[in-house]
Write a structure and sequence with these properties.
heterodimer, A: mainly alpha, about 75% helix, about 0% strand, B: alpha+beta, Rossmann fold, OB fold (Dihydrolipoamide Acetyltransferase, E2P), 2 domains, 6-stranded mixed β-sheet, 5-stranded antiparallel β-sheet
Amino acid sequence: MRTENQRAWFFVLPVLLLVAFNALVPIITVVNYSVQETFGNNVFFWQGLDWFEQILRSDRFHAALGRQFLFTFLILIIEVPLGIVVALSMPRKGFWVPICLVTMALPMLIPWNVVGSMWNIFTLPNIGLLGYFMNDVLGINYDMTQQPFSAWVTIVVMDVWHWTSLVVLLSYAGLVSIPDAYYQAAKIDGASPWKVFRYIQLPKMKTVLTIAVLLRFMDSFNIYTEPFVLTGGGPGNSTTLLSIDLVKIALGQFDLGPAAAMSLIYFAITLLVSWLFYTLMTKDDAK
Amino acid sequence: MAKITLSNLRHSYLPAPAGPSDYALKEIDLDWQDGGAYALLGPSGCGKSTLLNIISGLLTPSEGRILFDGQDVTDLPPAQRNIAQVFQFPVIYDTMTVRENLEFPLRNRRVESAKIAQRVAEIATMLEVEDMLDTRAAHLSPDNKQKISMGRGLVRDDVNVVMFDEPLTVIDPHLKWKLRSKLKELHQRVKATMIYVTHDQTEALTFADQVVVMQDGEIVQIGTPVELFDRPQHTFVGHFIGSPGMNILPATVTDGRVTFEGQPVAVEGAVKGEGGRTELGVRPEFVSLSETGLPARVSKVSDVGRHAVIEAMVGDTPVKAVIGHAEVEQGAQVHLAFRPDQTRLYRDGWITTEAMQ
């Protein structure tokens, strides 16, 4: 049923005002910076689209963007299937349900900078529990402060630890909404466990999974705090993701113009990829 | 197709059942003949779905055996029992087309493609869904979804039994009729044993050749719809079937004579046994107004169009009667007559008069 009444928009107005002040106005300020140059003292010079061109041509930006896509790709490819598997193996009813749910939610309740600090201490070579275990017990040369590969493994594992729960909880919510009759019918129809997953569980989880993938994409693409606290973008620039680079330009070098241009490009990419994900994942429903 | 035998079946959902009250199903012994159309009728919570799930293999009974054509299947999982079940809410595979839904049970059993195509075409024609075969099942209306669920049950020609667990609950009233007659027609065409679970007497009586009435985990009567209506073996059946149900009236028996509210009442035949709680059973259809008989005062009159249902107080006991409309008014003093050949005596709930020859 489609209603033709448009009065509902009035109820949206207060939110619109709120959003205007906390999102639209700041974004417009950034747009303003992105087309000007300043040397301080609140004096601005018109610059046009020069900053955009400079950023888009810069190797430094390309490298950071590449690292950013690699990071997001890695965590999505690990967290989504892992989250589904964990959700499938969780009990649907009984004594263990609340215990599992709370355990799952715990990592998400920890403040981001605390997560970074925790993992920093945990993985420091020779001092941290994991660092000590890897180097001195297993004899694997692991040092996230010195080796780019170790640093990458650490930030990816840290993100998986921190955020897989989100995928788990959303998938689980999708799973428990499936009535028993579906499983019983599948048994009677002689469906294999794979077919039960493919034709019953996955379709019923699809809506929540779309949300999970979108949230994980946006969060990981904009990630700052945890890798900053853990590695500070190092060693070298090896874990300097887009947002870390952005902060370096904006606050480290105080290049407000290029930083503003970069954040707008950054924002556009996030928006575009989110839209792509959403369109691709929901296109079947329209048919 | 197979004859299904339930022998000494009992089931409890508790791990260690102590008394009879812990059992959801109490001592069931029953044969379902090959090709019959059965209804399992009873109020919610009487154990009929439990019984159904035991036959399909979704539940393993605490005690007793289930035989298909004499072969013990008690420990077989549902997939190996060759049964089909249609659930209360339509179960369809959303991402598949209607055709793929119908093919699903056959594909899982690796039936050859030519056979699958032929069976699906047959079933689609029977259910009149040929024109939707290539639509996504998710987009169907609830009654069509339920049709497809039924189709998945009927598509296999080797099923031992097709079971329906209150399949019309979510269907609009005007479509219920259509689907119900469709089912009856399907039964005549496919000749499979069908068991239809419901708490709705109309559904049970229109679908089934034999109705199994259950109460509190026990079977109280098995019979044709006519038998259930005419001569209920238990007051529960009399009360549950018919609208309004049978009048169940407290009565006393002395030397084979039955009295109700101090008045003698003639019953169908000789009274057997003695002791226990005795009750008279007479359907409102066989209670009439007369010159003589039990004096009563009319307390309620509801005219339902074709006839009127009145409730009259005989002493302190209300008695329902179905009469032609506008014969009496509320508050009128009348006399009631029970038709003797339709008046039965029940002892502790079970019939205790001999049938009139």
